[in-house]
Amino acid sequence: MSEPIQFTLNGKQVKSIRKANERLLDVLREDFELTGVKCGCKEGECGACSVLVDGQLANSCMVAIGSIEGSEITTIEGYSQTKRFEVLSDAYAQTSAVQCGFCIPGMVLACEALLSHNPDPTDAEIRKGISGNLCRCTGYNAIVNAVRIAAKEGKGLW
Q: Which fold has domain 82-153?
């Protein structure tokens, strides 16, 4: 039997008794029922499974659960409880930057990671910041516009 792996998940101390080499994606979806984390490509290329690990964007399909001992994991479910999410969500709505919604949880977390490190990004920096997240429906112009609006309207939050 594996030793429990302890970490903070959306602000709460939790533990997993999974094998250390199992994917964080599976633990989040199956053990904690956090379905905002999507299984897309299983290769770390689409960003649908993005989470924040200690404030850094990560593809949870590529993260072994054993590597997050003591870390702070934030999923869209936890992030959606923040004022920063509210600002981003409103900006996405203003620009019609959401269609099917499959990529949006990971895309929003990519935007959070970008804005937390660069609260006033240029369009080129926004495009680079979301470059690991694929969107097949909305297109990137609306998302870039949403991030620009969120940066302006959320000034001081990031």
A: DNA polymerase; domain 1 (1.10.150)
